[in-house]
Hints:
The chain is an alpha+beta fold. The chain is built from three helices and two strands. Helix content is 33%, strand content 14%. It starts with 10 loop residues before the first helix and ends with a helix. The model has no long low-confidence stretch (mean pLDDT 89).
Amino acid sequence: MAKENDIKISDKQLRWLQRGLDQAGGKLPLFDDKGRKVSDRTVKSCIEHGWAEPWFSNPLKPDWLICKLTDTGRDIAQE
């Protein structure tokens, strides 16, 4: 499916972004709906496209990116 500026968003990316719509501050989950860690590739590609942004560091797991939706990411997730 084509989104803003004809950038194609994958189903995984879209599902991940949509899960942030109902969370305080647009917080995006670390784990999918089956309890598996969200792919680093999914997280990093969403950051690169400007759909998500790092929110804060996790002192217990510094290699995990805790992210939130950007305004653009929120718009895409709501389409």
